[in-house]
Design a protein that fits this description.
Elements (H helix, E strand, L loop, with lengths): L2 E6 L2 H12 L7 E5 L6 H11 L16 E4 L5 E5 L6 H6 L2 H5 L5 E5 L13 E8 L2 E8 L6 H4 L11 E3 L12
Parallel strand pairs: 2-5, 2-6, 4-5
Antiparallel strand pairs: 1-7, 1-8, 3-4, 6-7
């Protein structure tokens, strides 16, 4: 299995990547985001929400303390943060497992590496990392898809073209996750 990767120059390009993804996603799709604090996970979700026609004035914020935010977009956007959950039973207790996989909306899960068993096998995994003042983005499909649909689109913000990466898959734990 391979992944694709690029370096995004700034937060605006990270948000633009969210816009790009939002144009390609459908109800039932799940994005699993991993990466250290401040790596751009919520910024990417802001762009995604914009692509899904989030009404003006509705803020997109990390649901670290609420665990889950649902945004009134044309396709419901479920924004989940697993940072505070200890195990899968906590996710089940609050109905998160059923809600994330009900197929009605698009799910985005921050800190997905904390509970990978919650993530559907066909999820799109995205790792965001700090690298020399930029953000390295690595994308892989959990079911081994080739991501041609994304490779055919130029990365936003003047980033270098997507490259095939044989590095660790986005869901493989790292100390910063």
């Amino acid at each position: 299995m391979s992944a694709i990767t690029t370096l995004l120059p700034d937060a605006a390009a990270t948000r633009a990547l969210g816009l790009l993804l939002g144009e390609a996603l459908f109800p039932g799709d799940v994005l699993a985001l991993v990466g250290p604090l401040g790596s751009g996970k919520t910024t990417l979700v802001q762009g995604l929400a914009e692509a899904l026609d989030l009404p003006a004035g509705v803020p997109v914020q990390s649901p670290t303390f609420t665990v889950c935010n649902e945004y009134p977009t044309r396709v419901p956007l479920l924004h989940v943060d697993l940072y505070r959950l200890g195990d899968i039973s906590e996710a089940e207790d609050i109905g998160l497992v059923d809600r994330l996989c009900d197929g009605d909306g698009i799910g985005v899960v921050e800190w997905a590496g904390r509970l990978p068993e919650l993530i559907p096998p066909n999820a799109l995994w995205i790792r965001l990392e700090h690298e020399e003042g930029q953000r390295r983005v690595t994308v892989a499909e959990g079911d081994g898809g080739e991501l041609r649909w994304l490779q055919e689109r130029s990365p936003p913000g003047g980033a270098r073209p997507w490259m095939i990466s044989n590095a660790a898959m986005p869901w493989e734990p790292r100390s910063s996750d």
